[in-house]
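To: structure desk
From: M.T.
Subject: fold request, one chain
Message: Could you run this one when you get a chance? Sequence is below, nothing fancy, just the single chain.
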Amino acid sequence: MHLKLAGGISLAALLLSLLALSLFHSAVAEDPYRFFNWNVTYGDIFPLGVRQRGILINGQFPGPDIHSVTNDNLIINVFNSLDEPFLLSWNGIQQRRNSFEDGVFGTTCPIAPGKNFTYILQVKDQIGSFYYFPSLAFHKAGGGFGGIRILSRPRIPVPFPDPDGDYTVLIGDWYKSNHTTLRAHLDNGKKLPFPDGILINGRGPNGASFNVEQGKTYRLRISNVGLEHSLNFRIQNHKMKLVEVEGTHTVQTTYSSLDVHVGQSYSVLVTADQPARDYYIVVSTRFSYKVLTTSGVLRYSNSAGPVSGPPPGGPTIQIDWSLNQARSIRTNLTASGPRPNPQGSYHYGLINTSRTIVLASSAGQVHGKQRYAMNSVSYVAPDTPLKLADYFKISGVFRPGSISDRPSGGGIYLDTSVLQTDYRTFVEIVFQNNENIVQSYHLDGYSFFVVGMDGGLWTAASRNQYNLHDAVSRCTTQVYPMSWTAIYVALDNVGMWNLRSEFWARQYLGQQLYMRVYTTSTSIRDEFPVPKNAILCGRASGRHTRPL
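Reply: Done. Structure tokens follow.
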């Protein structure tokens, strides 16, 4: 069987090109390759008891997990058997020097129906728990998501013993309506209704179970892959020890319940130290006008009986409780990350920032339709991915600096917002939330230090309360209602990177931008050229990728 990649390139030819590249880059030669062939289809699913058209990967909902080790090369051939263009993106995978593979429309041309594309990713200098998801056309509301885990290399110490089991736990709010119905709702300028339920690993109430043996310890990798709501996660009569957040080993604090905001990922250790029976796993919405709750089961292998008693209650609208928990999540400074040196050896608090960017969200009507914005700009996608326009020097697609560093206070307007930044600078970004909802923001291509969060308006004096010692480094952060969150980020990854709301309707209707991390250098030490098998669309059609 001869697999063809996008552009008619055979898999054999691709492997030969990778082998040739390895002659020039010795690191690649010693890093393993993992191959995945995925077929994306529609299929009937019944997570909340009614038939829906879900998006399946190799017939699975959710999709298959990706298991990898630091520095692995992941070769993922995605065949699109849907009836509309499709892309997968990789939440938290940094795509070092290679934003072409990021899988959002600002960087990557969609895979046409009946066609395929092979992503070539390297999980360079990363560990931890992440997930992938479909980035276009509100597909995320139909499925197509799955877990990603990156294990440490064998010689790198991990700050806890190997668990006896390792589970992916994908939680999220869910609608009974198909994604096409929800998308049409948004396209018609309306807001989405309240969700119908919550899923755990694609299943409704009491549908998901996790098997444990008494006395053993298990790692749960919890990701909120939903569309809107912050969720609280808890297990009846069991404590959870937090050990990792989006690629950072944390101070090992024990919690009875954990707030997981939309787009975020956490690893906890749970020891099966209770009498042998079944226990509720409960997930419920936070900060919502009505509380949605679902449950799964933690099942002991020698269980003496089913779940009993009321499911454990959790916090509902308490913001201070969540804020205090967020501040307690800190980096383990003495633990190794993906490399043997301690995570605390990078002293971010001693580096002077060269620029402060304040981003404020807003909601409103444009031409009679609902839109969302950052610094008054509601993002509209051009006909050509920004990264390809930048690489091929195609004018008229975007303007660097088309969004300001500070809120203007003006009304919402439509534009293709690109924030111009410079490679190898160290910047401060403040997310100002003047709305009555919890927001959640994600930055592709990076991890950043969450140095502060508090209520009210951010001012320069707010820096006095920053954590400049052991702030957690992650890629998705929440911003509480009428509050701010500040991050520090070292711009060491050249490319075009999506900064977006993880509230998916808001992202779809404009609450996102792209950050152009720019250098005049053309060295592959700073950025890889466009992939040979890249799909070229829009005004990039007919251009030529690099020779093998």
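Reply (cont.): Confidence is low (pLDDT under 50) at residues 1-9, 16-29. Let me know if you need anything else for the meeting.
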